[in-house]
Amino acid sequence: MIQRRAFLLASAALVAMPASLMAKPKVTGVKVAARSVRLSGAQAPIEVVEDELGVPHVRAASLHDAFFGQGYLVARDRLFQIDMDHRRDMGRMAEAFGPRFVAADKAARLFLYHGDIDAELAALPPDVLECARGYVAGVNARIDELAADPAELPLEYGILGISPLRWDVRDLVRDRGISMGDADDEVRRAQLQARGLLDADQLMMPLRPAWSFTVPDGLDVAAVSEADLGILDPANRRASFAPIQETQLDRAERGSDRFALGSNAWTVAPSRSATGRPILANDPHLGIGGSSPRHMVHLTAPGLDVIGAGAPGLPGIMQGHTDRFAFGRTNFHIDQTDLFILRTKRDDPGRYWHKGEWKAFETVEEEIAVKGAPAERVTLRYAGGRPIVSEDAARERAVAFATVSMLPGANMRFAIIAINLSTDWASLRQAFKLHVSPTNFHYADVDGNTGWQTIGFVPRRPRHDGLFPAPGDGSFDWTGILPVEDMPHLYNPPEGWFASANQMNLPAGYPYRERIISFSWSDPFRYDRCAEILRAQPKHRIEDSIALQHDVQSLPARAIVKLLPAVPSPEAASAAALLRRWNCGIEADSAATLLYEMVMAALSTAFYDRIVPAAARDLIPSVNLSEMLRILGSPDKRLGDDPVAARDAMIDGALAAGWKRAVELAGSDPADWRWGDLHRVTIGHPLASSNPAIAAAFPRIEGGRSGGDWNTPMARGFNAKRGFDVSHGASYLFVADVGAWDNSRFLLLPGQSADPRSPRYRDFYPRWIAGEMQPLWFSKGAVEQHAAARQILTPAAKAPRR
To answer: Residue 757, CB half-sphere, CA atoms under 13 Å: how many?
Structure first.
């Protein structure tokens, strides 16, 4: 049975919420008068109908204007959010906020594309490029509109004394994004190998599938250190604003957060569906607590009819459906980066040894404008297009960072448009060739077909596996990208369903040794629970998908309960008894859940102290949960001469410690313990902690209690170092009834708008807390029936093409 109590009981918390949070827009069902606004950049009038749930439906005469509408609307609702992301990515923070951002700006500019922008644009499908131009024009139209009426600017601009940046379609090519990838993993393994402790790496990051380490020929592991990460290390590009939150996290937090950014998705074929139509469900797990990572829109034009959620600042819909097919996505863990150790010339550090000759670094000179200080000139270096992230001339050493995002053609910001313009499985597989980011793509169409395709750039490594840094002399260089056709995929599988939740999902028989993709994956707990449910449902319903998205059954909890000592100590007896009576559901109103989370924290610490070698603890800050459960389930000599007794004593001690911690946090009477009292959902402005005026202008959205944790299908992650508030999870949830589109359902936390003056600022918060999925109206008749506002975007004057 799917455990839904966590979100059904949470609805009781709504009684205590302010009435303003509970207000719902009035159903009109009548014709709504249109308001007209004149904007530069549109080619023809565009109708925008906003339904009573706040979803805008854009009706345009061209693809350009449909995406113009999306750009305009996301700028209307989320301008500061996309502007800050744009500033950060383009390396233009210092010009607004001063010298403390120069290091971050330099790092960002190192990861801008400096190749032939015109050639990149010319290589794009013309209709994709035209959509992108429309989106950029729409963003700029809103910026121009606000320049004419500054009173309507988002509140942050007046508080911070800045203005939004205008957009240029060329920036969509330049912006490749800085990300460490798994570079820190490569450095850690080299350091462990140098200490003779490489086997300990399995405790933190088990290799999946099983694999033997091989150190690349010529790599001096003893010379590798964190210094090689250089500018990739967030500590070396610190800034004092929360948009660059990663700089504030320690190594363990960065690692856990990286693997938390997953998702759930499943696709059910007509043969297993109660409707006789496919059902596709998706809930991307991203950060919760700051800006919402999704924005809703419906775009229609000749050759386009797509609805769903997009990433603010990225053209197109990432999860949703067209009139022909539904689509969803989860992270597919591709190793897309490598560190290459270069030997530089002793008397000329501007040269490096590569393929038998000394080559000069490519250099780019940049000037960073700095508010309140002189502009700073910086020199950016590259080796064969790979950014140089650290240099040590005295050691004749430099480190190049190879990342697929810097390759020619890696234009991810256009890929979602191509997907949205596709009409079927065949055209999608052509669109996938633009898609750089590692993704499990789920598909279901109105003809009853279902498909799973892994997409994303996979570098070909003919001489190494990507697990260590490699010498940069050319012998380990990449030799291309794996074709999409050679990546794992399914089409109409006989089982009638498939799912992905970031687990290792290379199919049996896939030639992974010849096509190395990755050895680092998320633990399988969420997938295993989803599979358990889907296998048991011969006729899956929309309601079943909604329930599964909110399921809180914990497979790790089941494993721990099975290991409870038969005769616990007096100090552990009460804890053991409470957990034995528990159903293993991570429910908001459960005392046992609160205890379990405290016991698991204590057990993880005790296990770490027992099993991680002291000499490796500076490199291995945490232990992988599935690996810990595997060892506890089959204890070996690493736990001591009597491993079973040691295991039992460890669990007994964790029970006692967990009970004590629960008493400290929730009081002495377990009848009063509730996991949701600790595990709350609080949404605040990303800059509130650093700017009191921002904090005052943007009231926190709070009060909601939550069930779930990292490992339940209803993923509600937290980091105990920062408290128990929900920090990761599905702010957007989506279930599609393929072909009967008006039956589809969605949620969006906390609302469409990031402006507290808007009624859409937090209108979805109580619905999300209660798990009350809402209808995603798609047909013109349904949209008109539920129309709440209407606007006509009228061209003002022909704008220059950008």
So the answer is: 10
pTM, full prediction? 0.94
The hierarchical CATH code for the domain 555-586+591-673 is 1.10.1400
pLDDT at 250: 55
Strands (E), 20-85: 34-39, 46-51, 56-59
561 touches 580 (CB < 8 A)? yes
Task: Label the pairing between strands 34-39 and 787-795.
Answer: parallel
The Cα–Cα gap between 647 and 633 comes to 9
Which tops the pLDDT comparison, 687 or 238? 687
pLDDT in tens, 330-347: 999 999 999 999 999 999
Cα dist from 490 to 401, 425, 620, whole Å: 33, 11, 37
Question: How would residue 251 be classed by pLDDT, with cut points 50, 70 and 90?
Answer: low
Place of tokens 């040894």: 353
Distance CA 632, CA 636 (A): 8
CA atoms within 13 A on the CB side of 431: 21
With a CB cutoff of 8 Å and minimum separation 6, the contacts of 258 are none
Tell me which amino acid residue 644 is: V
List the beta bridge partners of residue 306.
299, 322
| 3-class SS of residue 691 | coil
Neighbouring C-beta atoms of residue 154, cutoff 10 Å? 24
Judged by DSSP in three states, 246 sits in: helix
> CATH homologous superfamily of domain 5-27+680-778?
Aminohydrolase, N-terminal nucleophile (Ntn) domain (3.60.20.10)
Helix axes 643-666, 570-580, angle to 10 degrees: 80
Q: How many CB atoms lie within 10 A of CB 206?
A: 18
- Rounded to whole angstroms, the Cα distance separating 34 from 40 reads 19
Q: How does DSSP assign 433-451, residue by residue?
A: GG--S-EEEEEEETTS-EE
Collapsing DSSP states into helix, strand and coil, what is residue 319? strand
Q: Are strands 728-730 and 279-287 parallel, antiparallel or unpaired?
A: antiparallel
For residues 515-531, average pLDDT? 97
Cα angle, residue 786 at apex, residues 781 and 787 outer, rounded to 5°: 95
What pLDDT was estimated at residue 355? 97
Could you give the CA distance from residue 121 to residue 369 in angstroms, rounded to a whole number? 27
Amino acid at residue number 141: A
Q: What is the DSSP string of 249-268?
A: --HHHHHHHHHH--EEEEEE
What mean pLDDT is reported for the chain? 93
pLDDT at 34: 86
pLDDT recorded at residue 624: 97
| Average confidence (pLDDT) over 25-36 | 66
What would the mean pLDDT of 762-778 be, rounded to a whole number?
98
Give the residue carrying structure tokens 């010529």: 218
Say if residues 744 and 298 touch (Cβ distance below 8 Å).
no
Q: Which amino acid is at 47?
A: E
Report the interhelical angle of 625-633 vs 591-611 (nearest 10°).
80
Q: From 547, 541, 526, 501, select the one nearest 773 (Cα to Cα).
A: 547
Domain borders along the chain are: 5-27+680-778, 555-586+591-673
